[in-house]
Amino acid sequence: METDTALAGQQRPDAGITHRVCYADTDAGGYVYHARYIEFAEHARNQLMYAAGYSFASLASAHGVMLVVHRVEAQHHLPARLEDSLSLRARIAWCRPSKSRWVTEARRGDVLLATITIDMVALNVRTRELARHPEPFLAALLDVGQAQA
Amino acid sequence: METDTALAGQQRPDAGITHRVCYADTDAGGYVYHARYIEFAEHARNQLMYAAGYSFASLASAHGVMLVVHRVEAQHHLPARLEDSLSLRARIAWCRPSKSRWVTEARRGDVLLATITIDMVALNVRTRELARHPEPFLAALLDVGQAQA
Amino acid sequence: METDTALAGQQRPDAGITHRVCYADTDAGGYVYHARYIEFAEHARNQLMYAAGYSFASLASAHGVMLVVHRVEAQHHLPARLEDSLSLRARIAWCRPSKSRWVTEARRGDVLLATITIDMVALNVRTRELARHPEPFLAALLDVGQAQA
Amino acid sequence: METDTALAGQQRPDAGITHRVCYADTDAGGYVYHARYIEFAEHARNQLMYAAGYSFASLASAHGVMLVVHRVEAQHHLPARLEDSLSLRARIAWCRPSKSRWVTEARRGDVLLATITIDMVALNVRTRELARHPEPFLAALLDVGQAQA
């Protein structure tokens, strides 16, 4: 697991992000617009991937795969407002060879505001046909997730 | 069904919209970005509401309610590309007193690209507490939907 | 002007678009978010291009060029609100071999709300080096603009 | 200058932000979509405001003013790509009683990619009429800017 080794001696990157709500995120109802959480979730998923030592570029160059969103589900529990400080953290719920489920929770302090569940499929970068998630990639993602729990 | 009567003598507004994919909708993968369909679905839902003779303004002023997104689900069947001409059409799947399910289908010609399912709850505009969907509003929405089938 | 001939027998596409402001366009201040006008302007520019008989695809395949935004300027005169019906219309202010200026006006009825000025440069699709705007393309754009005046 | 005192004993918040380009920021041309820089600039401006000890909420509650975008100008020097790490930093170029100019530079390492210039006007929160920028607010903004230079 070279990826882990590479990170062993340095501060481990945290897989969560913090975002302070700006006008661009909100709508005339005074809350964060619902589709905006889907973008927040991409940030959090990417951050989990980076924390695991991977990037879209390395997935493509080393493994020939790209990840594509197949299904989105978002539950809105409570609204967020302008200047709220949100914490966003993604984790892997499960993974099969060609599909993985990424769950992102948006919180304000301890309060859960929204849960965004995204199913990703792996595609071959050239043919765009269904491919397998690289094994070491999933292992690294799960490893980062456990280290945080 | 006063709403229908009011529209009888004029061209009936269609509840669907057409959208030609622009750069703003796409991402570096070459396809429409997944969260963008959630925005397309808002356009289609609003158009259904307008076709039924309602608006956010009239819902608030005549009935004291606003609609808020409670849950989002989107299935991505096939990708859309820059300059694709998409047709987007919303319909009501079911409605309960305080919650309604709006399903929007995005098609390119006859091909179904994505299905976006949004659950809306009605809130009292002032108190932001749960409210009932106005009966004539739901009747008009269902009526517009049947006229199109 | 083959482009015009091709359109002669059919309804001439209008170079303007109408857009009814949805929640996605607005922010917590209650108005349309300023960056959203920049997206509206892309729609209007694309529509002008289509009305002139061109597309991004035809520019690339027939002329080997793509257009890239080099400079943006937007003046906000008056705010737009949720459900306002906006008309957006683009025109060419001037063009030089490799750069063109596209001006889009956003109006609500007769009232000018915003003016968005975009300078585009033409790039060679393969090399991404500066290229010339195809002559017939600019002629067709100017022709559509005059027909509307 | 209470704001400064309050921050004296702790790590001074930096007025810049770092953003790693995600799919949501990019378009089918493979670069960051031009309107997206306008949103990045809002983040950087807000961060400058927070570093100066202010917020939209405190401007409204303590001074009765809100800031509204009056004019946008963006120069695109070089494109940014997916996963590029951008640094965004805002500064005040000048301020008059009711209008201020905020300049944000987007860089990748030492390379300047885009310059976004935003003119803000202060409005009375209730009447939405032109107001003055609060003096201590501008002083704190300029102070933060100098501390960084």
Automatic annotation (TrEMBL), chains A, B, C, D:
Q: Which InterPro entries match?
A: HotDog_dom_sf, YbgC/YbaW
Q: What UniProt keywords apply to this chain's record, in alphabetical order?
A: Hydrolase
Q: List the Pfam families hit by this protein, alphabetically.
A: 4HBT_2
Q: Does the keyword Hydrolase apply?
A: yes
Q: Does the keyword Hydrolase apply?
A: yes
Q: Name one GO molecular function term.
A: hydrolase activity
Name of the protein described by the UniProt record: 4-hydroxybenzoyl-CoA thioesterase family active site
